[in-house]
Specification:
The protein is mainly beta and about 170 residues long. The chain contains no helices and twelve strands.
């Protein structure tokens, strides 16, 4: 199978809730069941031969407009961690409004008020797309997402961002 990223929310599409992230080879088996004079049916099965991990939603699957952030609704982990993290990004829709890209960053804070970048994800220029970014080292207690567009006007993106702290 192709190397793919798949995320699904297990506790609802809400900031701070759990999601399952798959990364690696996802094999898809699809078989049509056709019979003359009957409704055609299909059987589909998805199998992950890569890594499946539970993470926390930083930005629920939703449309964002223009530049913004989720710092006012940040996820509080209760403590910092030291073993890095895996960040998941899913982009289902994108309208650059004549611009060139959307930039998404995961931000971190020790106190929930002073923010710095934990990771800048690869530029988003098309949709749909999905990716992961692995970060190493310390991850501060509070996490949020920041997004911005380059050029254009009336830009929108349909995004999901989640994180799995390692260790």
């Amino acid at each position: 199978g192709d190397s793919r990223v798949l995320c699904y929310n297990i506790d609802g599409n809400v900031t701070g809730r759990r999601f399952i992230g798959y990364r690696g080879a996802v094999n898809v088996n699809y078989n049509r069941v056709a019979a003359s004079g009957e409704i055609h049916k299909a059987n589909a099965a998805y199998r992950n031969d890569g890594i499946a991990e539970t993470g926390v939603i930083l930005l629920p699957f939703a449309q964002v407009e223009g530049a913004g952030d989720s710092e006012d609704a940040a996820v509080d982990n209760g403590a910092a961690s030291t073993d890095g993290a895996v960040i998941y990004l899913q982009v289902a829709g994108l309208d650059l409004g004549g611009g060139t890209k959307c930039v998404v960053k995961v931000r971190q804070s020790a106190d929930g008020s002073s923010w710095s970048d934990l990771a800048t994800l690869p530029d988003i220029t098309t949709a749909p797309t999905a990716l992961i970014k692995i970060v190493t080292g310390n991850v501060k207690r509070h996490l949020a997402v920041k997004w911005a567009f380059t050029g254009g006007s009336d830009q929108t993106a349909l995004l999901f961002v989640g994180i799995n702290r390692l260790g």
